[in-house]
Design a protein that fits this description.
homodimer; 438 residues; L-amino peptidase D-ALA esterase/amidase; 2 domains; 7-stranded mixed β-sheet; 5-stranded mixed β-sheet; 12 helices; globular
Chain lengths: 438, 438
Amino acid sequence: MPSTNLTFSNRSEHRAWLATQAALPAGFRVGTTRFDFTPREAPKPAKMTLTLLALDRPTADFAAVFTKNAFPGAPVVIGRRRLEEPTLGAIIINNKISNVCAPGGVEASERICAETSRLLGLSAGHVLPSSTGVIGWGLPVDTMIAALPQAVSALAGPSVLPAAEGIVTTDLYPKVRRAAVGAGSIVGIAKGAGMIEPNLATMLVYLLTDVAVPRAELRAMLRRTIDDSFNSISVDSDTSTSDTVALVSSGRVPIGDLGEFERALQTVCRDLAEDIVRNGEGVRHVIRVSVQNAASPSLARALGKAIVNAPLFKCAVAGNDPNVGRLVQAIGKQVGAHGADTDLSRLRARMGGVEIFSGGVFQLNPAKETALVAHLRGAELYTSAPPKDGVFSAAIDFPPHERCVEIEVDVGNGTAAATVLGGDLTHEYVSENADYRS
Amino acid sequence: MPSTNLTFSNRSEHRAWLATQAALPAGFRVGTTRFDFTPREAPKPAKMTLTLLALDRPTADFAAVFTKNAFPGAPVVIGRRRLEEPTLGAIIINNKISNVCAPGGVEASERICAETSRLLGLSAGHVLPSSTGVIGWGLPVDTMIAALPQAVSALAGPSVLPAAEGIVTTDLYPKVRRAAVGAGSIVGIAKGAGMIEPNLATMLVYLLTDVAVPRAELRAMLRRTIDDSFNSISVDSDTSTSDTVALVSSGRVPIGDLGEFERALQTVCRDLAEDIVRNGEGVRHVIRVSVQNAASPSLARALGKAIVNAPLFKCAVAGNDPNVGRLVQAIGKQVGAHGADTDLSRLRARMGGVEIFSGGVFQLNPAKETALVAHLRGAELYTSAPPKDGVFSAAIDFPPHERCVEIEVDVGNGTAAATVLGGDLTHEYVSENADYRS
């Protein structure tokens, strides 16, 4: 996947590179504000950041896709309605509380949109809300409305970085990717580190462009693009109730070649999707599964997902243990449960370029074991450090490299292919999630 | 589920209770032997136990169900053939290596069966093999054959406990359950702690009875019983390539009431299934999800499975954190992906008897939060101890109690029900599996 092969040795180097990606396309400004509040369901002080993405003038050319979770957050319910509006003028995003199935949640989000519209001089309904964080709690609406004017007065260019930083929750670092398209550009930001196995859409992703792509084309391209990007990743197999990918054009730069725009959009989405996995909760190895010669694209993707979601295989990768038996178990589980008519007799599997399975049997020996361990170690993002006060935490706040544990599965009975990305299962994931709210 | 409400304060108390369960039904003997060997794929000394379950005379009345994984182990391939044989005389079980897709695996298992037959004076093909352990490695056949005579000469009664101990891998303690049926009994033993989300059958489970139930009834009853027992549990959502449940009658005690036998079989299977979850790898909380009023039994079970397999919810339970948002996320993920026509507007959910969700919104407040934390703490099996040399291990080798985290989901639009058991996701699970083989 990734269009780059970057390495960074510290946070400053990574930040310097992010700055090269972060120039806002013409016609957009961003503003953020951060404040204290106390959730009513579990009274204990907390901090929230409000992030505002504003267009200089409302646009008809916007697209969005949302989670398929049957309990969508209030902002997703509202977002689906916004797709019917003639124009969009701004996006208002909060972290810390996701506003999912909270009593009065839709009304709360609408009040925040209304106040944002009023401050920006927009029509009501031309603001898209997004929320991420704890599921089940209610938004502190009054506190948020009191803080909104600061976000509005902070609105500025030329960098999208304040927004990329404002929307994070458990992310270790902000995620920004760009691509040039003729005289214009596409710039995307993403947050998301846990509860990530998107279904149609994922996490919070905002794609801004100044290239004038009409609404209908924008929406069709976004739908086509997400299957091979955000729908092909899984950190932990959970599906967020808030997943949102929005694509907005300010229309400032005339479109040249639609195909060039779509390819640039694919690059930005794939790179951001991989960034999300690499910065997934507790992820110390990114696992890339390339499935070839499957009977259908859906089977290819399902096999890839089965591998990156198999807890025992994920743990083995965390320990740099080439327990390829668990990998084949995952394929067999998926086929046994959902594709019993699939012929697996020609299946071949490789890890790190080393053949581990073919002709129905494992192809293992001590020399291969040594090579596989070396491959796993080479793909490790950081070494797990001993816990402090019982809690494991990541030793890095930047992505040191873009290497992956490379798995190739050749099913041998079709022509379809898919590439799926996932992460290992580590002590850092458990520490992060055994007491995330407190 | 469980038919008992046991508590134990140490290993000796638990062992004393196991002894009360362990009397072999008439007509069976068990023998084990333990020895050193070196796997050829990763040369490093290892230990294996061979466990032999022998009938005093071969029986026509036996049943077995096996994994649905599409890469079944060689013993499963052979086991399916054995179902066609007129009689069964013995079961030979090894741990440490599961003999799955190893070159020459079927021939290796058949050689061990043939040698067992020869030593016991049986016809070839009347021995059922089972293997559990690392996937992908080959059995050390010559070493095993050299050790077999010791297992044969160890054959004895009156307790099944040596077999329950012989078949374990990462289990913390042996698992035995019994039920009286008229003048006879059913005694079951089980091993299995990880790679456990059975599909049709599960793990290694051997159910021995002296009650004379004809082959056809025995097989039908086993099929009916496993759905509500072994098919309703999940430790980690992985499906072993070796899952086997065998039910063998020595026919010594005339059958009275077939219904009484089936109810006793259900009790033994449900209790063993719960024992397996309670002793699951790293499990510190057993989670019991009772789904009511669903449109179909399969939807009810799928919702229960979705909850006990949601990594973020499992982590929250591990931390005694009542993050019920993650619970509802899991329901929404399942329905969004697989049951989009399910009306969730009447869904109600309770944890520990406390209502947390109804009418489409969460029902939370600080007093409920306190009650939920107390419920989670009350269901904890042991407190996580700091890691030693970076490795977390269980502080217990007995089940201190049979309490669960109790979750009730009333879907509100049907009459079907299911109860599903699972475990939390802990540092102990990651430690166990990040370097299990070494």
